[in-house]
Structure prediction request, 819 residues.
Amino acid sequence: MNRIDRLRGTAAGKRHNARTVAALTGNPGCTRRAVLDAAGVDKVKLAERIGFPGSFGQSRFALARGNAFEAMLKADDCALLRSTLGAYVGSYEDLGVDEDGTLAARHARTRALLRGAAEGLIDHPLLTLDVAGQTVFLEPDLITHRTGAQLQVVEIKSFAIIDGQADGTAVSAAAVQAAVYVLALRQLLGDDAVSHEVVLVCPENFSLQPVAVVLDVRKQLSTLRRQLSRLASVADLVEALPSSLSFDVELPAPDLVSALSSVDARYAPECLSSCELSVYCRHESDGDTAALGRPVRDALGGVETIGEVLALASGVATPTPEQAEAAALLRAARRLRDEALSRPAGS
Amino acid sequence: MSTLVALARAEAFAAGRAQRIATVRHLHIHDRPLVLIPLAMAGEANAPLAVLLGTDAAAPRLLVVSQPRNRDERFTFTAELAAAVVPYLASFGAGGTEAVPVDRGRDVRYRYVDAPQVWVPNPGGADFLRLLGRSTRFRRTDGDHPVPPAVPLLGQWLTFLAASAEVPGSALLPNAVQALGLHWATGQSAAEDAHLGSLFAWITSGAEAARAAEQGPVAGPATDPEFDNKVLAPLIAESSPALVDALRDLLMPTWNRMWESIALLRTLPEGARVQSRWDSDRDVYSAFVTHLEEDGTPQPRRDGAVAAAARLQRLENAAARYAVQRAFDDPLVMAEHRLSGAAFGGVVTLAKADRIDDSGKRPVLRPRIMVATTEPVRVEAGAALTSPARPSQKAKVISVTPTAGGSDVLLELSGGMGRKLVAEPGSVPAVGEHLLLTTLSEAYRPGAAFPDPADTPWTHGGPPTAPASLSD
Prediction:
C-alpha cells in the first residue's frame, strides 16, 4: 500500500469520474480536494462524520427519467439512438460495468476495441487519465461512435432542449465532462483520432423524443489541459504532509478535523454545489472575504479577512504598502455609506 | 459588484444582520398582488407538481397534480391554474383607462389605470412560468388532444409575464429574492442568498437564524432530493391523499415569507421615479390586453430577426434608464457612482447667474458656476453633467483645475431656468450650495429605425418564411 492509499485507511476507495475531474479543475488551487480525491476518500462519509453533512442526493424521479430515456434509446440494438445519430452501420458493443478486480482486463479490452478500425458504437469503455501525477481510471457513461477515421464522444443526458435552447449550467457541465472523455481518449489513441466535436443526445421540448446536437469542446479541452497541468503533483503534496496523517472515516471526529486542518483548502461559494466537504470548509473560512464570493473579495481590493476590511475602512488599521490603494477605496466607500445613511462617521 | 455593496456585505457579516444598500424602495408594490409559488417534478422538462397561490395572505389556494407524469392530469391542473390566475390578470383590463398625451400633445392614447403584479419566490420561479407558458400556449382546443380554451390563454399570459420579467425595472413579475437583494446586503455570498428562507432570515432575524433556515423547506420550483425520495415518492406511488397535506406543509413557510417580504418592502419609502416605471408596465399591459382582444395569436417560439433586434434595444434602454433612475432616486446608489468617479459632490464657490452668451445669432442665458470638490473627478472639459436636484438642467464642463485638496470644476449651465434671459429664482445653484454632479443622464434615447420584417436583410436570414405549424 502506498502513501496515498494509506491516507484513506481501511475503507474501499472511491473512483474518479468525469464529474470529479471536472470539479477538481474547477478549483485547481484546492489542495484538500486534490489530496482527498487522489486517495479515494469517501468525502460524503467524511463530512457526515465530522458533523457537516451536505446534501448531494439525487432525486429518484430524476434518476428514473434519465434511466428511462437511456433505456429507450438503447432498446432493440440501439434502434432509436442509431436513427438519432444517423449511425446505421456497425455493431454495438457494451463493455458493461464491473468490479475493481477486473478493471485492467476491461481497460485492455477497451483499448483493443477502440484501436480497431471497425465502425460502430462502443458503450461504457474504461479510460485512464493522468490527474495530478496519478493515473486514474475513469468510469465514463458514454458511447464512442466511430465515423470514418475519427471517434466521436456521444453523451446521453436527460435535460430537455426546448426550442433549441437548454439550461446553460447543465450544458456547460455536460461539455466539461465530455471534454474529460475526449482528453482521455486522445491520451489513448492520439490527438487526431478523436473529434473535438461531441454529440449530446437529449429529449426535445416537452416530450421524450431524442434530439442530437453537436458541441464544440475545444475551449473546454484547452481549459482542462491547462488546469490539469497546473495541478501540483499530488505525490509531492502528500510527501509534505505528516506521515501519521489519516482520513480513515472510522477515526473519531476530532482526529479527522485536525487531519483536515493540516491540508489547505481554498473555499469559494461555488464549492457548495460541487464538493461534498464544502459545508465544513465554509465553516472553517468564516470571516474570510473569499467566503462572500470572488466578486465581493475583488471589490474589497483582495483583502483577506472581513475584520481587516472593516479596520481599514474605518481607518483603525494602518495599511501595508500593498494595501494602500485598497484602503483608500475602502475609506472612501465607508465615508459615502456613512453620509448616505446619515450615520455618524466611524460608527 | 461595487465596492460599496461589498463593504455592506462585510458590515453585515460583522453585525450578524443584513445591511441596507438602498435608502428608498426601487420597486412598485401593488395593493393587491398575486403570490404564486410553483413546484416542479424533478427530472421532467416542465412538469408542475403543485402551485400555492392567492391574493390574500390568509387564503392560500393549493393546486396539486397527484400523478405528475400523467398528461391528462397535467392539463386538468393547468386548466385549474388558468381558472385561478387568468381572471386576476385580466381584471385590470376592466378597471378603466386614462388618457396619455403622445406626439407632444398632438394626439392621445389610452392605458389601463392599473396592471397585475405576480410575485414568485425566486428567478427559478419566473423561469418555470416561462416554460409553462411555452408548453401551453400552442395547445389546440380542437383535434386529437383538445385542451380547455383557458389553457392556451394562460400560456400567453405567462409568456407575457415572463418576457416582462426580463426587462430591468419592470414590476409585473417580481421575485422575492431579487426584490430583497436589491435593498439589503447579507453577510454571505450571492449563491447562498438565492435561498429565500436564508436571505429573509438575514434581514429579519440575523446570521444564526439564516444558517438554520438553510435546512428549512426550499422555495421551489425544484424540490429537495431527500424530500423526493423519502416523502414524495411513496405518496405518489400509493396515490395517497396525504400528498396534498405534505405539499401544503412544504409550501406554507415560503408562502408566509413571501407575504412578509412584500410587507417589509412596503415599509420602505418609494423612490421618486418608481411610478414612471410602473406607468411603462401599465403601457405594455394595455398593449397586451389589446393584442388578446384583437388578434390573439400566441407569441412566436422565437422572435424573428427584426423583432429580436428591437427587443434587444428596448432591453438595453430599459437597463440604462433603470440604472440612472435608481441613482437619481437614491443617494446610496449614487454613492456607488461617486466611488467609481461617474459622479462627485462639491460646494458651489462662485456663481454668475446672469451670464449671457451673445456670440451666436441670439443672446442666450449661460450662467457659470465653480464647484470645489474633494472627491476624485474623472471628467474632462466638454463633458455634459447633470444634478439629481435639477434633472432638466445641463452643466457643461469648461475646465477642471486641480487644487490642494481636490479639484475646482468650472461649469456652464443651460436649460431648466425659464424662457427669459434672467434665470428663474433658485434655478441656478447659489454660492455655498452642496451640489452633486454626474455623467449619468436621464435624457430621452431615441429608438433606432428597424426595417419592416418583410425587408429583413439577407445578413439576418432574409424575410421570414411562412410560420411553421403551431404544434408542439
About this structure: Residues 60-85 of chain A form the longest helix (26 residues). Chain A has a mean pLDDT of 83. The beta strands of chain A are 91-94, 120-123, 127-131, 134-138, 143-147, 150-156, 197-203, 210-216.
